[in-house]
Specification:
The complex is a heterodimer of chains A (441) and B (519).
Chain A (H helix, E strand, L loop, with lengths): L13 E4 L12 H7 L3 E7 L1 H11 L9 E5 L2 H5 L1 H18 L5 E6 L1 H5 L4 H12 L4 E6 L9 H10 L11 E4 L4 H13 L5 E4 L15 E4 L5 H9 L3 E2 L7 H15 L4 H26 L3 E4 L6 H12 L2 E7 L4 H10 L5 E5 L2 H11 L3 E4 L1 H9 L4 E3 L2 H4 L5 H22 L22
Parallel strand pairs in A: 1-12, 2-3, 2-4, 4-5, 6-7, 6-8, 8-9, 10-11, 10-13, 11-12, 13-14
Chain B lengths: L1 E3 L7 H11 L3 E6 L8 H7 L8 E3 L10 H17 L3 E6 L1 H6 L3 H6 L7 E3 L9 H16 L10 E5 L8 H14 L3 E6 L5 H4 L7 E4 L2 H15 L11 H15 L12 H6 L10 E6 L1 H14 L3 E7 L5 H10 L4 E3 L3 H11 L3 E4 L1 H10 L3 E3 L18 H13 L5 H9 L51 E2 L1 H8 L3 H17 L4 E2 L1 H11 L2
Parallel strand pairs in B: 2-3, 2-4, 4-5, 6-7, 6-8, 9-10, 9-12, 10-11, 12-13, 14-15
The chains are: A alpha/beta (441), B alpha/beta (519).
The complex binds iron/sulfur cluster (2 copies).
Chain lengths: 441, 519
């Protein structure tokens, strides 16, 4: 990438902060994972808080009778762990009886279950024995004390790796739960390169689990899969180092790395990618007009922040001010950091109050942040893009590049449209915005 | 352990947040793992607040567990005090912190902060959100209310409104109007709308108006004991209750009742001939006990509906609700399990449901229209327009809201007359409403929607006992009955047949049952 702009952040200093984190816990990943794995049920062993979190994060979707639930610990369960195990076995048996379509059951640990040291790994083994071969029971932790938001997916996939069938063949494994439509696009692109022995982790159903072995090469689709990568390395598989497939450039670089690993020649690569590349560039250009020259800050949320900032900077002409990430996996992120424009402020972890102080001093044109912060920041006159949508919306690969740019352009366009009808900010009349409390007449 | 998918109430610390977020000048330091901050978005998204809830979370992580978390808590308290300079601090533990036993109250007290620090004991594994609001407000009142003389003029406090309360914002406006009309001053509105320093003068009021017993009854009882303030028991939802409330208030204030009914349209709307078709419509009512009981009375006495089911999810108030259900001759459904509510609704086969967000969706599933009368609610029930439930305007709002989902009278007649008309096909639903069309993708507004896929819904299981069989002709005849009463007709016919040991339902059985159940 020799286009003359100063690039490369691999050795840039990272601001590491401790303090209040305004983030979701890993349980939240269940909301999309249960959609992807169609015969899996996610049973959180936790408290009413955990159930309430899932309900709040899943919004109205909860009414589709989702394949997840919470076994809420009650006072009695805290008194004796033996009883808690018995209770769990009973609840699981009842659940599996009611839902005979379930083939994989995930016991998902929470803060309460971790703190009382309820051994869910043992429980998973025990329950697998009881319900084999029809159902396989796995365990991972999505607790807030151990995982942040998308790390829940990492913990889940990493827990699946030891159980994957072994193989001696040379195959390509794509890792990360993507919307089906995007997954299919990736397969078509790879088939165009002549790579068709492609499997995906997680599979859509238990019987579609990929096989892994010493000749397996794998490429990550998401940046938050550090533990899963380590587990695959442990099975002898080799990681294909690449930036992540966001935007035209990211997708091309990702495909390039895979193509190189499989010895695909330049002409084939060009044949397979030229047309979609051009399409993606055109689509991004439509939104780039709004984004170009605007300053953007990311608050930590999903670990997607660095690749997305790279996309916005290089393909949409934005200027990253601060890129906050909940966790920076230097190894996985190296190809991304190489592409980032310098200088940029990178921060890992969070002290939310201090970060907001910096944000208010920076006053970027666009702030990417969570739902707990978005409206309060809007009422301070900042423009925000709520980050969770970036995890729930198809944004990977060529055909989504334009949509991805549009997600960031939309709040700016909206602000411009509304600016004509009243002067912003308008939150003086919203509750809690500092309006005088009601007083006696 | 109890397997749960939907919860009507959050954990008790969310109740404490609702109190803190409703107030100004109060800050809540919550000992909680990172991740529990999700609760902020209830306020910033559903209630659309333009400000972060005044809550500092310690957000401890696994590596902090051990002696470290106590330090973390102390630091968080100090930092929160320094930054926000509140008039008072509440401190407590979420479910996880309750297990690590750091004693937030003791730790905070030893910091010697120059403002009152109130420790909350909220047992997360046995109590829920509404206990959290009530207990928090009680502790605040108990700690902050100072002995003081009564105001020279007749005044009262309005107790109960909180953050994230169903129509609390507008109810306060309406009730203030009622009091105003009688020349009664409002001393303090709390918790929502007050500061800790306002709570100090709670005792100056002559009596208390309790709008939501779920949130304020314990505090009101304490104020009655300690400050000699009687409190109102009538919830002014509906025209009759509003009148009764005005009389009760007048009694407490020692003045003549006065109600300005210039804008009260509900009684005439209900009496006008257009509403005749509402008579005897069967409604199922579910919500928090206060709203459910009020709605059931309005439904029966002011709308002319027949209440065919009544229930609540907060057991703390089960007793009066059961009594009312008994008086109305229906079974009380007291449960926090929405699947049980769904079963009760299916069994009662109502023509309309008055409930919470959950019942709205149960109604959608069963094809029964529904109006929302109680929390928990989604973003659309925090409307921009003025929409109280209480007082004069509240009665008007109730009428409109409840009638709107129903098929209009004329439409109902046309549907019966021309039931073979293709435009009145079952799938169409009420023409004015699009009520049973597929859910719009953006419904619920703010909540993130992962791509929808079809998921089997069988958690509730299926029961298939020996049921009477429908003869083909009877089945065809049944199809001619308009969809909105067909479910009831099917059920009535089946129980009629079952009671008489009829194995096959014929067209005759159908009409015999119709005659039998005619009202
Ligand atoms: S942070 Fe912990 S206690 Fe809170 S919802 Fe997540 S897992 Fe449950
Ligand atoms: S659309 Fe209207 S009538 Fe239909 S279920 Fe929802 S609220 Fe009820």
């Amino acid at each position: 990438m020799n286009d003359g702009t100063p690039i490369g952040c691999r050795s840039a200093p990272v601001l590491r902060e401790r303090g209040q984190h305004e983030v979701f816990c890993g349980l939240t990943a269940i909301v999309w994972l249960h959609r992807k794995m169609q015969d899996a049920f996610f049973l959180v062993v936790g408290s009413r808080t955990c159930a309430h979190l899932l309900q709040s994060a899943a919004g109205v979707m909860i009414f589709a009778e989702p394949r997840f639930g919470t076994a809420i610990l009650e006072e009695g369960d805290l008194a004796g762990l033996k009883d808690a195990n018995e209770e769990l076995d009973r609840e699981v048996a009842r659940l599996l009886e009611r839902r005979p379509d379930i083939r994989q059951l995930f016991l998902v640990g929470s803060c309460p279950s971790e703190v009382i040291k309820l051994d869910l790994a043992r429980a998973a083994q025990r329950l697998t024995r009881v319900h084999a071969p029809h159902v396989r029971v796995l365990n991972y932790s999505g607790s807030g004390i151990e995982t942040t938001f998308t790390q829940g997916e990492d913990a889940c996939l990493a827990a699946m790796v030891p159980g994957l069938p072994a193989t001696e063949t040379s195959n390509l494994l794509l890792v990360g739960a993507l919307p089906d439509v995007v997954e299919d696009q990736a397969r078509v692109l790879l088939a165009g390169l002549g790579i068709d022995h492609v499997q995906v982790l997680p599979g859509r159903r238990a019987d579609q689990d990929p096989a892994v072995g010493p000749h397996t090469r794998y490429a990550l689709l998401q940046p938050f899969l550090g533990d899963t990568a380590a587990a695959l390395d442990g099975r002898g598989a080799t990681r294909i180092e690449a930036p992540f497939p966001f935007g035209e450039e990211g997708t091309t670089a990702w495909l390039r790395a895979v193509a190189d690993a499989f010895g695909i020649d330049e002409a084939t690569f060009a044949r397979a990618t030229d047309a979609p590349r051009a399409r993606a560039r055109r689509a991004v250009a439509a939104a780039a007009g709004t984004l170009s020259g605007k300053r953007v800050t990311f608050l930590p949320d999903s670990q997607l922040e660095i690749p997305l900032a790279r996309f916005l900077a290089r393909e949409c002409g934005m200027e990253p001010v601060e890129i906050g990430t909940p966790y920076l996996h230097a190894g996985l992120m190296a190809p991304e950091l190489d592409l980032l424009p310098t200088p940029v402020r990178l921060s890992e972890g969070q002290d939310v109050e201090r970060q907001l102080d910096r944000l208010r001093a920076d006053r970027p044109d666009l702030t990417v942040c969570g739902l707990g912060l978005a409206n309060p920041l809007e009422s301070e006159g900042l423009t925000t893009k709520w980050a969770i949508e970036l995890v729930f919306t198809p944004v990977h690969f060529y055909e989504q590049a334009g949509d991805l740019a549009a997600l960031f352009a939309r709040p700016l366009r909206r602000k411009a449209i509304l600016a004509g009808s009243f002067s912003l900010p308008v939150a003086g009349n919203t509750p809690g915005s500092g309006a005088e409390p009601r007083r006696a007449p | 352990m109890k397997l749960t998918v939907w919860t009507y109430e959050g954990p008790p610390h969310v109740g404490a947040m609702r109190v803190a977020t409703g107030m100004e000048g109060l800050h809540y330091v919550l000992h909680a793992p990172q991740g529990d901050t999700y609760a902020d978005l209830l306020f910033t998204m559903i209630e659309r607040r333009g400000k972060r809830p005044p809550v500092t979370y310690t957000t401890f992580q696994a590596r902090d567990l051990g002696a470290d978390t106590a330090t973390l808590f102390r630091d968080a308290c100090l930092a929160a005090y320094d930054r926000f300079r509140p008039e008072a601090l509440i401190v407590g533990a979420s479910c996880t912190a309750e297990l690590i036993q750091d004693d937030p109250g003791g730790l905070a007290e030893r910091l010697g902060l120059p403002v009152p620090v109130i420790a909350l004991e909220l047992p997360s594994y046995s109590r829920k959100e509404l206990f959290g609001t009530d207990e928090t407000f009680y502790q605040l009142a108990r700690t902050l209310a100072q002995p003081c003389g009564r105001t020279p003029e007749v005044s009262c406090n309005i107790l109960g409104p909180t953050g994230l309360g169903f129509r609390h914002r507008d109810d306060v406006v309406e009730v203030t109007k009622l009091l105003d009309a009688m020349g009664i001053a409002v001393n303090v509105v709390a918790p929502m709308g007050s500061r800790p320093s306002d709570l100090a003068r709670l005792g100056a009021a002559h009596f208390n108006v309790v709008l939501y017993p779920e949130h304020a009854e314990t505090a009101a009882r304490w104020l009655e004991r300690e400050h000699g303030q009687p409190f109102t028991k009538t919830i002014p939802i509906g025209t009759r209750a509003t009148r009764a409330f005005v009389e009760e208030v007048a009694g407490l204030a020692g003045i003549a009742p006065r109600l300005d009914t210039g804008d009260l349209r509900q009684p005439w709307w209900s009496a006008s001939v257009d509403s005749t078709y509402l008579t005897g419509k069967r409604v199922f009512v579910f919500g928090d006990a206060t709203h459910a009981m009020a709605a059931a009375r309005v439904a029966r006495d002011e709308m002319g509906f027949e209440v065919c089911g009544l229930g609540c999810y907060n057991r703390e108030f089960a007793r009066p609700l059961r009594a009312l259900a008994k008086e109305m001759g229906v079974e009380a459904t007291v449960t926090d399990d929405y699947l049980e509510v769904e079963r009760a609704i299916a069994a009662a086969a109502p023509e309309m449901i008055l409930g919470t967000q959950m019942e709205r969706h149960i109604g959608k599933r069963l094809g029964i229209p529904c109006a929302v009368i109680s929390a928990p609610v989604h973003v659309q029930d925090f409307p921009a327009r003025h929409s109280p439930q209480m007082g004069v305007e509240g009665a008007n709002v109730l009428f409109d809201t409840w009638v709107h989902p129903l098929v209009m009278g004329l439409e109902e007649h046309l549907l019966t007359m021309f039931r073979e008309d293709f435009e009145f096909s079952d799938a169409a639903g009420p023409s004015h409403h699009g009520g049973h069309a597929p859910v719009a993708a953006g419904e619920g507004g703010s909540a993130p929607h992962p791509p929808e896929a079809d998921s089997p819904r069988s958690i509730s299981g299926h029961r298939k006992d020996a049921e009477p069989v429908w003869a083909a002709a009877a089945e065809r005849e049944l199809r001619k009955i308009p969809f909105f009463v067909r479910g009831k007709a099917r059920r009535n016919t089946e129980s009629f047949a079952a009671e008489r040991g009829v194995a096959e339902i014929t067209v005759d059985t159908l009409y015999e049952a119709k005659a039998h159940y005619a009202r």
